Amino acid sequence: MMLVHIDRASHSMDKILGAESYGKFRHELSLFECAKCGMATNRTALFVDEGNPDAKVLFITDVPGDSKNLEEANFLGQSGVLLNEMLRGVGFSLKNDALIASVVKCLPPNVSSITHMEISTCLTFLKKQIELMQPSLIVLLGAAAFQCLFPGRNSISIDKEAGRLFENPDYPDAKFMLLYHPALIANDPRRQSATQKHLQSFVKLWKTLP
């Protein structure tokens, strides 16, 4: 009898990246015991998303937030509660009107220690999420998330670029908007005021999406 060795990691990757529906992708990724980078050694859970995959808007942050608040903005951590409240103020629900995902799928022990290799490894999953979800508008929370999807922009002034729309030839069917990261908003009242104006522009655009 011939024994066939099965590389379970490669088999799982094939199932994840070969998924033909978002539901299948979500299921397979949530079960994946990923060990493709060093963050796996400290992982307690692999974060896939939060919200509505049928929505027209995808919010992307750099890493999932560490929060015990399971009712509001858990994916963005405690600082995301403020952003959630501000969005509700302009008639937008993160839970119902958007999907939230992160570039890195594990909660790292130190955000500043994330390496390019770790980002590029997880970026494969994020690109598959975008492909399957097909959002009309992608909102990038913070400069780190922006640079992951716009790698040609080596430097960016978040204060100058926040609230602006961008185009990415890799995703011709989606508009991109850059917003402050929720942690910056929570820690700086001036950015809260600016974000309020950005969100008013955002919700006007959202209401016109096909």
Q: What does it look like?
A:
This protein has 210 residues and is of the alpha/beta class. The chain has a single domain, classed as Uracil-DNA Glycosylase, subunit E (3-Layer(aba) Sandwich), CATH 3.40.470. It is built from nine helices and six strands; from the N terminus they run H-H-E-E-H-H-E-H-E-H-H-E-E-H-H. It has a six-stranded mixed beta sheet with strand order 1-3-2-4-6-5, sandwiched between helices. Strand 5 and strand 6 form a beta hairpin.
The CATH homologous superfamily is called Uracil-DNA glycosylase-like domain
- Using only CA atoms, what is the Rg? 17 Å
Strand order of the largest sheet: 1-3-2-4-6-5
CATH architecture: 3-Layer(aba) Sandwich
The helix/strand order is HHEEHHEHEHHEEHH
Alpha-carbon distance between the two ends? 57 Å
User: What structural class results from the helix and strand content?
Assistant: alpha/beta
Strand coverage percent: 5-15%
Uncertain runs are 1-7, 68-73
Number of helices: 9
Helical percent range? 40-55%
**What is the CATH level 1 assignment?**
Alpha Beta
Number of domains: 1
Please report the total strand number as a whole number: 6
Give the CATH topology: Uracil-DNA Glycosylase, subunit E
Let me know the average pLDDT.
Answer: 86
Main β sheet profile: 6 strands, mixed
Shape: globular
